C-alpha cells in the first residue's frame, strides 16, 4: 500500500490537474481534504477537457473511489451542478463512486453574500477572494454554528440550527447595509441540497478500511502553501490549511497513514488576487509568461500575475510543508528566453534574508535578489525523456533542485498527461 499527498508549493495554479490525473490512474482512492469550489483542476483526457472544482480528479476514471473529506467546505448547489456537467461528458457519477463526508460543513447563500459584501466594503484592502463563501463557511465551522450535511437528516433539530446561523449573519448583513434574510429562505435552500445526502457517508471509516486493505490513496490538495492560513502571506491567504499535514485531519485518517508528499511547482511563479509577490514582472516579461502559459484561473477566469521563479518561497514551502519531491510543471513556457532569473534570497531594509518574513508590512517591502542563468532556444514542449531536453533546461531543473532542497520526481513539458518525465514514482513503497 502507498499513499501520496499532493499540494501546491507556491500560490496555487501550479498545474496540479495534470499531475493528480496522472497519479489518480495509479491510485485506488482519491481524496479532497481541504478548500472549497474556489480552486480547480483542469484535466485533459483523450482530447476531452474536464474542469473540476469540488470533485476529486479520480471521478473521471473508471473503477476509482472519490471522496470529499470533512476538511472541505461544500456548496451543495455547486457540487450538484458539477456532477451534472461531468455526466454530460459521459462520466458516470454515483454514490458508489463518490462519497462525501457526512460531517462536512455546508456553504450557503448567506456565506456567498457575506464574502462579497466584505470584499466590496474593503476597497483597496480587499483580499481578492473568489466571492464564493469559503471564508465565511470556515468561520461558521470554527464558531460552531455551521450547518453540516448530516444535519439535513435531523428535521426536528434543523430549525434551531438555522436560527443560530441567522442570528450571526443578519447582524453582519445589517452592519454592511444588506437586508436580513429569513429562515424560510434558508430552509428552502437546504431542501434543494438534500440530493447530496445520497453521497453522504462516514468517510473516515471508508478510508480506514482502504488503508487496512492496502489500497493506494491519493490525497489531493487545493491552492498552494503560500495561501495556507498560517504559513502563507497572511491576510492574503485562503481560509484553510493547504499543507500536507491537513490531509490527516481533513480526511479523518491518522498521520501515520500519509505517505510521501509531492509539491507541485511551476517553473516560474504566478499569483491570482492581491497580496505580496516579490518576483512579479508587471512588464513584457510577465505578459510573455502569461500568454505562453495561458495564465487564467480555472474557476474564475481571472488573469494571473506572473514572475520569475522564487526559490526562497519554494524552499520555505518544502521545509514548512514536509515536501519530499517536486513535480515541476510548465517548463516549456520558458522556451526561447535568452536568460532566466531565479530569486535566491530577499533583501529587507538592507539585510539579506533566506526566508519570507511573516509580517504583512515586511512582506510588502522585501526585494528579490536574483541569479541570472542561461536560457535555451530549442523547444522542450512534449519532451518525455531527459535526452530530449536542451542541456540548459536540464541545468535549470538541477539548479532548482539544489536551491529548494528537494528533488524533482516528475517533470511536465505540456498539458498532455503523456508529456511527463518520470524520475521517481511517488507511489513507490
TrEMBL record:
Its cofactor is Mg(2+). Pfam families: Adenylsucc_synt. Keywords: Cytoplasm, GTP-binding, Ligase, Magnesium, Metal-binding, Nucleotide-binding, Purine biosynthesis. Pathway: Purine metabolism; AMP biosynthesis via de novo pathway; AMP from IMP: step 1/2. It is an enzyme of class 6 (ligase). Mg(2+) binds at residues 13, 40. Substrate binds at residues 298-304. HAMAP family: Adenylosucc_synth. SUPFAM superfamilies: P-loop containing nucleoside triphosphate hydrolases (SSF52540). GO terms for biological process: 'de novo' AMP biosynthetic process; IMP metabolic process. It is found in: Cytoplasm. Transmembrane segments: none annotated. It comes from Acuticoccus mangrovi. SMART domains: Adenylsucc_synt. It catalyses: IMP + L-aspartate + GTP = N(6)-(1,2-dicarboxyethyl)-AMP + GDP + phosphate + 2 H(+). IMP binds at residues 13-16, 38-41, 130, 144, 223, 238, 302. Coiled coil: none annotated. This is Adenylosuccinate synthetase. Belongs to the adenylosuccinate synthetase family. GO terms for molecular function: adenylosuccinate synthase activity; GTP binding; magnesium ion binding. Plays an important role in the de novo pathway of purine nucleotide biosynthesis. Catalyzes the first committed step in the biosynthesis of AMP from IMP. NCBIfam families: PRK01117.1 (NF002223), purA (TIGR00184). GO terms for cellular component: cytoplasm. The active site is at residues 13, 41, 141. Its EC number is 6.3.4.4.
